[in-house]
Structures are given as structure tokens and as C-alpha cells.
Amino acid sequence: MTSDTFLGAVNTRFKLDPANARLLIVGLGATGYSAAQFLQQTPIKFAVIDSRSHPPQIDCLREQMPDVPVFSGGFDQSAFEVATHLLVSPGVSLNEKAILKAMRAGVTVISDIDLFACATDKPIIAITGSNGKSTVTTMLGEMGNAAGLRTAIGGNLGTPALDLLQQDADLYVLELSSFQLERTSALNAAAATVLNLSADHLDRHANMSGYAQEKQRIFRGDGAMILNADDPMVMAMLEADRTHFSFSVRRPADFYLRRGDSDCLMFKDEVMMSADELNLEGSHNIANALASLALGHAVGLDMNAMCRALRKFKGLPHRMQKVAEIRGVRWVNDSKATNIGACIAALQGYERKVILLAGGDGKGADMAELQAIVREKTKAVVLMGKDAGLIDRALAHCVPTHFAANMREAVAIAARLAEPGDSVLLSPACASLDQYKSYVDRGNQFAQAVLELS
């Protein structure tokens, strides 16, 4: 797409006319810096602001773009008063006082995803949901490449969306969070999905209804809708006059799991592949594979190529990742399970009861939602972190509970409890920042403690 075409698109959509507009990028993390790099190549005038005194990308910005005005150490109201448009990074709440005041004054809020959508005419697959986003995004990247298309993946996963434009891809696959979607209006994906919905980020969204509404924004436009037939809140988003496909691991759908002597992934009446050919653990990963196949089919990817890619797919680190099998005990790292829904999905994939390692920052979620699945699928729970006591009370002693001060102690307790044939699952149902740098750090510490057992 040419520069003139992009400028015409953002002017038509947002009245972002370089002659009159003044855009303020709010937040100088990865997204804000990506937006600044992109805008630097256009005649659009912009500045950057961050409440932190030394935001992560400020040194790079000053070195690469010394002429760009930068405000740091607080939200200077005068910068907002000059702006005609705000590009608000997903890490910054729209409820910030300065942003709310600007919005009430008529300032337009956009996102980097809006700029991205206006800057390309290539098909976009958009993926959101409480759990499985990164797995499905990565699966589709490999499917697209297997089908012969230059496929670029990013957004909330890895590479910021605007940086993907440098790859000149044939197909873009974007993972999108609720924070990205709540400030995005120009995205019209060729195919989009809400994989599932469970309580998450209720510290930023008022309630589940508000959270679902933000997720539903991914379906704005006229592209194909891919819907989880096993999730009533997702199915309620169906627009019957739109092209749509459903997927399910529980019942017949457009794409579904047929159970029997040999479980198979089906497209209507056609067997696509055996479930045993997937190198993934848990029924929720079968759902991820079905969603990926449905999204790929919606944009015309070859079915055989997609199945070849699935057979080779090994999964992502910290997402139901087998760490080791020691003295007959299987140790599984699902540190990416930072909310209740992800933990429930992980547990549902097991036939035998497991020993669960959980805890951290529950982000205000109702941990009582774990009680039924913990009673059904676990033989014991080892709790750690900020909300360990809260989770213990919510579980109401439905299974034996143990407490650990840190990961090494949690692994040692689990090792004493485990018997040959058991699985020990780290699936915290909580954020990690109360004790760790990130969920990656948490998962790495788990893996290290496990490997030291041998």
C-alpha cells in the first residue's frame, strides 16, 4: 500500500489530516516505540508522553528521533490539550484522568492496530480469547507458511503489529488482547475468533460483561467469524448473516473432535487427521488446533498443508510444556496459565488426577471457580505466592492443600507427594509478578527445580 493510500485511509476514518492533526502517543513501551518509528516515516506530526520518569524505550527514541518531543515523569496536561488524537498503548488504562479529560473534550483515541489496518490491504487473521491466543497465532503462522504464503505473526505476541509491515507478508496473523481491542475500531479482519472467555483482567474491566464486550470488538467488519461452540458467551456473539464456522471438542460442529477408538479432528464429515498425531497435551490444545484449522480454512489455506503443519507443531514454552519424567512422574510447565480459565482448561485435559502447583496474584478473580475442577482432577494442591491463603479458603479443603514459600519448596513438596504414573502440573491460575519477573521467569524456575530432582 502506498503512503498516499494510507494517509487517505486514516484521514477518512479518523480525520487524521497531517496538515491539522497533532497526535500524542501515550506510553513508551514496545507498542509506543513501534508507533513512533512508523509515524516517523509519515508527515503526521506527533509527540510522546509517559508517566514514568525513564520509560523502557526513551533512550532509543531520543537517539533515533531526536526531534520528536518527549514528555516523561507524569502526564503533562498541556500535552493532552494540544493533541487532536491520542494513540494509547495497551498498558495504559483509558480511565487515566488526563485521557478521560481529553476524550470528553473530543480528542479521538486510536491504537497501533488501527494504523496497521489502514496501512495494509493484505488479509489479516485476528485472534483473541482468555486462553490459547499465542498457541493459535503460532499454529496459524506455521500453517500459512506451509501453504506457501509469507506469513507474519505478532501483535500482543512478540513483534508489535506495525513492525510486521516491514516483512511485506502475504498474510498477517495478529494476537490481540482486550486492552488492544478496547481502543481499536478500524480493524476488519478477513477471519477473526474469540477462542473462549473466562475471568481475566477484572482489575481493568468492570465485570465479565464488559470484558466480553471488548473481546467482541474483534468481529467488527464483514470477515468470517470463528466461534467456540463449547462456550455460550462466545456463541452469543454470532451474527447469523455473516460467514461463520464453529469448532468444538464436545459436540458436532463445522470443525470438531470425533471421539472413538481413534479420536479424529473432523471438518464436517471429513476426517482431517488423528488426534494422536498432535504433539500437544490436553483437550484444550485440540480445541486450539480446531480453531486454527477453521481460521485457516476461512482465508483459503490448503487443508493438507495445515494438517502437515499441525503434525510438526511442538507447542510453545510455558504452555503445557513437558519438562521431564523422573522416576515415573511427569512434570508439566504451564506457567502461562495466568488466570482461572487457563488453569481449568489445563486440568480438563487430564484423565488421571494430578498434583497441582498454583498461586500468585489472582488479580481479583473469584478463586471459588476452581473448586469443582480441583476436586475432580487433582489429588493435592501446592499453593504459593500473594494469594495462596485466598485460594486455600476458596477451595474449602476439597483436596489436601500444602503451602510453599517459593518454587523450589513447592517442587520438593510435590516430589514427596507424587507416585509413579502421576503428573505434577504447574498451572498457577494467577499472575506472576508478586514473586517473579514474569511468567517466563516463573516457568524457568520451575523447570530448574524439577531438573535438580534428578
Automatic annotation (TrEMBL):
Which positions in this protein are listed as binding ATP?
A: 129-135
Homology family = Belongs to the MurCDEF family.
Keyword terms of this UniProt record: ATP-binding, Cell cycle, Cell division, Cell shape, Cell wall biogenesis/degradation, Cytoplasm, Ligase, Nucleotide-binding, Peptidoglycan synthesis
Q: Which HAMAP family match?
A: MurD
Q: Which reaction does it catalyse?
A: UDP-N-acetyl-alpha-D-muramoyl-L-alanine + D-glutamate + ATP = UDP-N-acetyl-alpha-D-muramoyl-L-alanyl-D-glutamate + ADP + phosphate + H(+)
Pfam families annotated for this entry?
A: Mur_ligase_C (PF02875), Mur_ligase_M (PF08245), MurD-like_N (PF21799)
Query: What is the top-level taxon of the source organism?
Result: Bacteria
Tell me what this protein is called.
UDP-N-acetylmuramoylalanine--D-glutamate ligase
Give yes or no: UniProt keyword Iron-sulfur.
no
EC number(s) on file: 6.3.2.9
Per UniProt, residues of the Mur ligase C-terminal domain are: 318-430
Domain (Mur ligase central) spans 127-295
UniProt pathway? Cell wall biogenesis; peptidoglycan biosynthesis
User: Function, please?
Assistant: Cell wall formation. Catalyzes the addition of glutamate to the nucleotide precursor UDP-N-acetylmuramoyl-L-alanine (UMA).
The cross-references to SUPFAM superfamilies, in alphabetical order and at most eight, read: MurCD N-terminal domain, MurD-like peptide ligases, catalytic domain, MurD-like peptide ligases, peptide-binding domain
RNA-binding: present as a keyword of the record?
A: no
**Where would you say this protein principally sits, based on its record?**
cytoplasm
NCBIfam families referenced in this protein's UniProt entry, alphabetically = murD
